[in-house]
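During the no-cost extension, the postdoctoral fellow (Dr. R.K.) reprocessed legacy sequence entries with the updated structure-token encoder. One reprocessed record is reproduced below for audit purposes.
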Amino acid sequence: MNTTAYSQIEFEARQQQKAEQMQAALAADPGYQNAVKGLEKAQADLDHLQTFIANQRTLERRLQYNPNLIEAKANVTQAEKAALTARNAVFHQAQLAKIEAEKQAKNQAQTEQQARLAAEQEAQAKKTYKASYLAAGGTEPQFEAAWVGPNGLWEKELQARAAANVAAVQHSMGQRYAL
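Re-encoded structure tokens follow.
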């Protein structure tokens, strides 16, 4: 989550940018566009009916069209609800996309951090093992060959560390749930 402080001008610029992005998303969504067209048609039908009723000469003729007026108003209300629902669906999809992007960025950062940590751990272990290996009478090329590979010293060290972690967790779980 971004918690950067903004000046009023920067804040307004960001709000304007977000509004433009949402307008672009709404313009690109066919469901929303159809709902807006339906709303515009319902509103135009209502306006036309109201004008028609207003032009009637007698009260009796005007009252004759009341059921049509009520139906037209209900159609406008229903079309407004459909447009609002479509707009909310577009906003929801945009929010889900934003959350997914943030999740991907977080996962990428964690992966990079884990890779850096692993490289640091390997370098530190290699330095320690190399000094011991050379002190025991080995040569540097022998150490390099023994360090890498499927059964190399580093892989064995990783297996030993993993086994120790699993054992510690099992011991902890055994202690936690022991009677």
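The chain has a mean pLDDT of 89. The chain is about 85% helix and 0% strand. The remaining legacy entries will be reprocessed before the final report is submitted.
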